[in-house]
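Sequence in, structure out. Go.
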Amino acid sequence: MSCVAALRAAASACHLAAPSLSDEQVAQCLAITDGLRARFLPPAFSAQTASLLLQLPAEQTASLLLQFPADLLSVILSRLNTRDLARLAATCRSLCRDAPPPRAIGPVEAELRRRAKARGLDVGSFLPEGATSWVACLLKRNRRDAQMRQAPLAVGPEHSMFVDTRGRLLTCGRDGRARVFLGHFLDDPSAICRNQMGPPTPVLSMQGRRIVSVASSDKCCLALSADGEVYSWGDGAFGSLGHGDTGGRLVPSRIESLSRIERIAAGRNWTNAAVDEKGRLFTWGKAILWDEQDNIERPHSLGYELDSETICQPTPKRVDALSQDRVVGVALGYGFTLAVTDAGAVFFFGFTWGGVLGHSSLENEVLPRRIEALLLTGRRFVAVAAGAHHALALTEEGELYGWGHEHANGHGHEERTPQRVAALIGQRIKLVNARDNSSSAVTEEGELFTWGDGPHLGHTDHRRYFKPERVEGLIGIEVAAVAIGDKHTLAADADGVVWAFGRRVALGLGTSGPEGRADVPAPTPIPMLRVRVRNSP
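Output:
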């Protein structure tokens, strides 16, 4: 009866206010009424109806929601997307109780906790250091988790990949080594003869599939669909494409043994990785690493034991050594792998390259081993990135640690164990990216820092930057996604506009520009392209 009484009270309030309502407000009330009816009769309460509540003035929204019984309110909140839930938390304080223990959990926090639990995320019992609000903390974590799961940009040696606002896969650039990375062979055979595409072009063979993430290496490309399916194409040597053979693919082909995948990573040395919705890590590809300097074989970066005669793992295989952990991020370097878990631990396995594994010891690791130097910091880590011979790890507080080769670890000198990047102290980092001999970091405010070796860092010159430097050409622009390569870099702003700099042909901007320049020195928007990021249409 309490449910019925609450609904009657809400109806009475609407009846009294009816004379002063505009036609638009009346239409909104009718839509809400239809939603309430759908709550008790199929179909269920819709997300569209729930969002209409937020179009009312904040006071009316709060007053109306507070009259709903708890079970109906939970249904309404469950239909809101994260952005609308954040707006509700900001405008309806009575729904967002956030007092210190002992306390009653408010409806918004309860919904955020439900979502985290459904994804298997470990929320914990104590607020992170410096945090004062569970709702703000959970909202931030939800956004960060979604942001790290979806990468709308990727770069290869001389090609680029994009996911536009419609979820389409687009590629551009060229492949000068007779391995096809662009995926347009069946669409435009003449393009393969030229080994080059013009501006970003949709891959027609992927039409009808909504893509959310892309990844690329110097060997192959990966694309992840909204349904959790993984597609691969390129050079299939050593089973790098995951199809059970060593043949190449000219167009994207689904990896049948993978399903419900949430994260993908493409690495050098014919090795790739994926993480499914349960946090299980899968790797596949080349099972040996030849060290030309010492003329011997080194441990591979797959994370599991293989017999000495095996040279490749041609289908994705689970890394059982991490079966007790929920992996939330993975990065692949040249002969080594990083994995970060939901508990905030970072694991390394593979070849040390003189200390890149992050341990003081120079011993190589076949199986995952936790990096104790990061454990001793007392920080919870949320993301990792890997270059050819360096590595980066990001804490929940936005602190960045780097180690490995001096070119791009952020220190300007070699570090065998992780050390905080001094040049970024005072900045809260939200995104980190690395590739070969270069790295990038994006602050909470959306400022982009790059460093490393090459003319693709956006600093308008060709000299090396061993420590992070702000990209001046993007000051005032909120960067939301980055893909950095060894010859060109892509950065998407909060509206989905893609800013590019580096090798011109890889950006789909032709082979030469003003004064015959083959590169784009400063950030330049790619015409007629919007990628899928937070505020994109």
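Check: Residues 23-40 form the longest helix (18 residues). Residues 41-47, 189-194 have pLDDT under 50 and may be disordered.
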